[in-house]
Amino acid sequence: MADPEVDDTLNETLDDSLWSLGVYDAHCHPTDTMDVVPEIPKRKIRTLTIMATKAEDQELVAQVARNYPDRVVPSFGWHPWFSHRLLDDMKAGASGVTISKTEHYRSVLTNEPTEAFIETLPEPKPLSQFITETRNYLEEFPSALVGEVGLDRTFRLPNPASLIGPDDKKLSPHKVQMDHQRRVLEEQLRLAGEMDRPASVHGVSAHGVLFDSFSYLFKGHEKVVRSKRTQKRGPHDFEGDEDSDEDTGPKPFPPRICLHSFSAPPDFIKTWLNPKIPAKIYFSFSQVINVGYGYERFAEMLGLVPEDRLLVESDLHIASIDMERHLAGIIHRISRERLWDPPKTVETIGKNWINFVYGETASKALGL
Q1: Residue 31 in 3-state DSSP?
Q2: Residue ranges of region Disordered (predicted)?
Q3: Is the torsion defined by CA of 169, 171, 173, 174 positive or negative?
Q4: pTM of the predicted model, to two decimals?
Q5: What's the first-to-final CA gap in the chain, in angstroms?
Q6: Which of 33, 124, 254, 291 has the greatest CB tally within 10 Å of its CB?
Q7: pLDDT at 8 (0 to 100)
Q8: Which DSSP category does 123 fall into?
Q9: Minimal CA–CA distance to 154: which of 27, 263, 270?
Q10: For the chain, what is the total number of helices (H) and then of strands (E)?
């Protein structure tokens, strides 16, 4: 999730012939600026994948998806920046246990907050209630994703305006405890698995912990990878080490995962592409994060991403023409780095988005 200043240096554009091929924004937040949402039909982007992040915008995302069903794929989830506002009543031993608002926030925030700070925070929402509400949204929207979810080690809660004096800083010293973030993430991922929905995942300065969180849910479902030696022996000379396409029921993790505005060290791409991982991993890149912040290893990172796992996004908070500029910028950058002509880039990323959202089997059945 990003809230960037408008970048006037984004002057690259796409020809109408390229827009007509189908450009898909894999991750954006236009409900942050609802007064501009009516401009969505004016955008040349074929489909916006719109993220929810907290209590206030779940229904807003649903409303936009109802109003523009042909232009929007909704995604329902709780962002790690706001995870402290959920009370974990789903962990072992939590059933029937009640704690006060003060006890909750002091247990999930670092650097014990004062009572004055806590008073400015909302009453925490039970995690079980949020999961039920999200399940209802996913049932209403059969193509909806789970997201934006994830982990963030750097984010600090802002100081309430009422508590900021002339010498105070805008950001408080309080972060959300990583264990609590992991619990909120885990329950949302389990829901995505139950509903067989892909997830859009945020990860900032917590790349190892994020991977470990998924690995915990993958445990017992890993794919068995044939060694080069057994591959040469033929398909009937051994048992139990071939991938199976058989549907064995819901898993405790999403079938497809988008690591949005991916900015981990490049070696993490190799980690996420381990063939034993039982989910399909996609990597999405944005102008504002991967290029706008001057990430020096972007070219190296991009070179490690398989052609069929590449997505693009704006990650913008407003459905203005800047969305088009940001997507055009990242598409041209990928074209230069991969030595592809722009039509190939647009067609490849468009196909990948369709497969990410609908799954390859469903995409073929729909003729997409």
Answers
A1: helix
A2: 227-256
A3: positive
A4: 0.91
A5: 28
A6: 254
A7: 41
A8: P
A9: 263
A10: 13, 10
